[in-house]
UniProtKB/TrEMBL annotation:
<keyword id="KW-0732">Signal</keyword>
<feature type="signal peptide">
    <location>
        <begin position="1"/>
        <end position="29"/>
    </location>
</feature>
<dbReference type="GO" id="GO:0005975">
    <property type="term" value="P:carbohydrate metabolic process"/>
</dbReference>
<dbReference type="InterPro" id="IPR050248">
    <property type="entry name" value="Polysacc_deacetylase_ArnD"/>
</dbReference>
<feature type="domain" description="NodB homology">
    <location>
        <begin position="95"/>
        <end position="272"/>
    </location>
</feature>
<dbReference type="InterPro" id="IPR011330">
    <property type="entry name" value="Glyco_hydro/deAcase_b/a-brl"/>
</dbReference>
<dbReference type="InterPro" id="IPR002509">
    <property type="entry name" value="NODB_dom"/>
</dbReference>
<dbReference type="Pfam" id="PF01522">
    <property type="entry name" value="Polysacc_deac_1"/>
</dbReference>
<dbReference type="GO" id="GO:0016810">
    <property type="term" value="F:hydrolase activity, acting on carbon-nitrogen (but not peptide) bonds"/>
</dbReference>
<protein>
    <submittedName>
        <fullName>Polysaccharide deacetylase family protein</fullName>
    </submittedName>
</protein>
């Protein structure tokens, strides 16, 4: 599959941080007591770790099980040619589910803080019309390793359009996102989950190999499940949105997302990174 998934996320070296650290060292050296100091106590064998649980508590959560190592042989194989493959889950026995976030209307800075704290992987399907007023909002989320994928330019019902119309929507979003974020989307989430065979054809012509559906969709405090027993299953793809108080009856995006994680944690699942389970061949 080579570099199909695009360049890796660039890590910015913290030169300024280093300079600050050096300055702090110098200051503490200068403040050393001049009189004979008592012998230094033996360094503790294990350095005190920052309280990981406290980070989760900050968001009203218990720490989640970390995701297992991504499989070396990626279980979902998408063909390189022919109609883009439609899927709503990934074949795996790992107790992982995958979180996808759509549209991009709400741009809550507290959510960026939350993701920085919790490092839960998400895949973002962004609609150009929803994000073009502030493309930069999504950059720190991308810098955490999260991929940005295609969700069309104007969020239409794709099957209402002919092949050319569908291509304009899919390729147009892909081109804008590639220009802004430096990596080309390889997956499409069709708006409203509506697609037809022309969508599969149009997606392929836009360089997209997979059309991503879902098994459960987050509302405000809980999912709407495909499964009548309201269970999650290994490999399920979950849908949520960049939504805020206007769309969530006054609830914030971070509260919605905390409730989403609680539902996953309660069932003993970890959140995996969708792209780690997919290859194109
Ligand atoms: Zn959408």
């Amino acid at each position: 599959m080579g570099d199909f998934w695009g360049r890796s996320v660039r890590v910015v070296a913290g030169a300024a941080v280093l300079a600050l650290a050096l300055a702090a060292c110098q200051r503490s050296a200068a403040e050393k007591p001049k009189a004979a100091a008592p012998p230094a106590p033996a360094a503790p064998a294990v350095q005190q770790k920052p309280d990981a649980a406290a980070v989760w508590r900050k968001w009203g959560l218990k720490p989640m099980v970390p995701a297992p190592a991504p499989p070396a042989d990626k279980p979902l194989k998408l063909p390189k040619k022919g109609p883009a493959k439609v899927f709503e889950s990934v074949p795996t026995k790992d107790r992982v589910v995958f979180v996808t976030l759509d549209d991009g209307q709400e741009k809550d800075l507290r959510f960026v803080e939350m993701m920085n704290d919790l490092k839960v992987p998400v895949t973002m399907f962004l609609t150009k019309d929803d994000v073009q007023d502030d493309y930069g909002y999504f950059t720190p989320l991308q810098a955490l390793g999260n991929r940005i994928q295609d969700h069309t330019v104007t969020h239409p019902v794709l099957p209402a359009l002919d092949l050319e119309g569908q291509k304009q929507e899919i390729c147009g979003d892909r081109d804008a996102l590639t220009e802004q974020y430096g990596t080309a989307p390889t997956l499409l989430r069709p708006p409203f989950g509506r697609w037809n065979s022309l969508t599969q054809e149009a997606a392929r012509e836009c360089g997209i190999s997979g059309i991503v559906m879902w098994r459960a969709s987050m509302q405000i405090h809980d999912f709407q499940y495909d499964d009548p027993k309201k269970e999650l299953h290994p490999g399920d793809i979950l849908l949520a949105h960049f939504r805020g108080p206007e769309q969530l009856k006054g609830e914030t995006m971070t509260r919605m997302f905390a409730d989403l994680l609680k539902q996953i944690e309660k069932r003993g699942f970890a959140v995996g990174r969708l792209e780690d389970y997919i290859s194109v061949q």
